[in-house]
Amino acid sequence: MHKILVLEDDELFLETLEDFLEDEGFEIKTASNGEEVLSITYENNFDLYLFDINVPLIDGISLLKELRNSGDNTPAIYLTSYKDKEKLTQGFLTGCDDYLKKPIDLDELLLRIQSLLKRSGKSFEDIKLTEYLTFDPMNRRVLSNGTDINLAAKVIDLLELFLEKKEKIITKEMIIDRLWGCSEGYSEGSIRVYINNLKKLLGKDSIKNIKGIGYKIEL
After folding, report:
1. Does residue 124 carry a pLDDT above 80?
2. PTM 4-aspartylphosphate: at which residues (predicted)?
3. What percent of the chain has pLDDT over 70?
């Protein structure tokens, strides 16, 4: 799943963007000011930034300049009300890859995001899981000979986590954070249920239990 950080100080518009992009299969993190973005990006990596320019504390242009100076080359799209060519030119000089003027057409935004992710090497190609199963990352579906097998959302979440960290061990804490976050309760039994669901799907030897540490996928 591709991760996008959205910076927007208009709360209603931010909620609209978040709902739309999550429905399109993206993992979304939000911020309402520039300093919040710096804090978030210090601890997290993203596939793309969507930044409003006119936001509190640190404006979008100064923020992206600071990120670029720190070596962060994450693709970025500005969402802006500015019509001033000088301001937009300044934005591109700081390392912006694209921009859209408000009011935003959400379908156009989606096309711009997909295009930019493809140009930056963020693949949307199906991932082969077994001889008969493939994973469609764009639409978050597992297909059996091309037919969607309609897996539960949390099983898809867990599969994505394993595929993103294919060469690494997945800890229990990482699973809890991805499947439940801070807002939902969980149990040790529910973690085992979802792990077993994936084993049934991919084969009993597809996920190794690393005792006392976590799990690792082997496809």
Report:
1. no
2. 52
3. 91
CATH of 3-120, one of 3.10.450.40, 3.30.310.50, 3.40.50.2300, 3.90.930.60: 3.40.50.2300
Class of the CATH domain delimited by 127-217: mainly alpha
Provide the CA 20 distance to its chain's centre, in angstroms: 13
Give the span between the Cα atoms of 219 and 108, in whole angstroms: 36
Tell me the whole-structure pTM to 2 decimals: 0.57
SS3 149: coil
Tell me how far apart the alpha carbons of residues 211 and 107 are, in angstroms, rounded to a whole number: 46
Q: Are 149 and 142 in contact (CB under 8 A)?
A: yes
Average pLDDT on 88-99 reads 76
Comparing CA positions, the residue from 28, 89, 76, 22 lying closest to residue 50 is: 76
